[in-house]
Amino acid sequence: MNQKPKYIQIKDCILKDIKNHTLHAGDQIPTESELCERFEVSRMTVSKAISALTSEGYIRRIAGKGSFVTSSLVQKQYHHQPISFTDDMKSIGLKPGARLLDYRIYRGSDLSPEIAQKLQAEPDDLIHYFSRIRTGNGMIISISYNYVPCKTIPAIDIDCLENSFFEFVKKLGFTGLHTVSFSLSATLPTPEQKKLLEIENEALLKVSHFTCSSQDDILEYIDTYYIGSMYTYRLD
């Protein structure tokens, strides 16, 4: 006879399906109503099991949609040589994706003083700006905000922004790409980020850095906000 509490039995059953890959990253688990019927328990018991799986990082609850299996936690080691989001996803067996939210060209005078200072932008300098949702197996992982000086990269193929911008940069012939002024911080999402990332008050990991060429030309400045339960950085 199984002496475990019912909610633990439900949790273990779902966890078994995740670990044996019956359920994959991005898959929706059965609804609370389906689990109630299957295990013949109350909604409160099912909710307790789902809350336990959520707190342990195995699933994410998305308001109005349901509960979904999270991706494997990305353990990214900092390198002076930049490693793309695409490579991060491939390293854990997920298909990388990008969804362009916004693209425009700013003048230096239109940027916030903080960004203009970071880019050393003069008032008349032109700057590419784009924001993107990044995904793994279709599951939302992060949102990024990129600033690219036009004097370094005059034109951007918009199609590349739905794929790997890093690969596009390398194809332009830049060499000796390296990361400069790398920083990490924890923050809570803005109302807009909550909507775009489909989260509530989950902490975000903000990663900021410059990518420069071998001549130390600034290729981009980027702020990326990762859903905290999905990403960890290791600095050796």
Describe the protein's architecture and organization:
The protein has helices spanning 6-19, 32-39, 43-55, 85-91, 113-119, 165-171, 191-197; strands at residues 59-62, 66-69, 74-77, 96-107, 126-136, 139-149, 178-187, 204-212, 218-227, 231-234. It contains 7 helices and 10 strands. It has a 6-stranded antiparallel sheet with strand order 4-5-6-9-8-7. With 236 residues, the protein is α+β, with helices and mostly antiparallel strands. Helix content is 27%, strand content 33%.
Low-confidence stretches: none
Strand order of the largest sheet: 4-5-6-9-8-7
Overall 3D shape: elongated
Content of β-strand: 25-35%
Counted beta strands = 10
Q: What's the total helix number?
A: 7
Q: Could you tell me the mean pLDDT?
A: 86
Biggest sheet descriptor: 6 strands, antiparallel
- Summing up helix and strand content along with how strands pair, one would put the structural category as alpha+beta
Distance between the termini: 49 Å
What is the radius of gyration computed over CA atoms, rounded to a whole number of angstroms? Answer: 21 Å
Helix % is: 25-40%
Query: What string gives the helices and strands in order?
Result: HHHEEEHEHEEHEHEEE
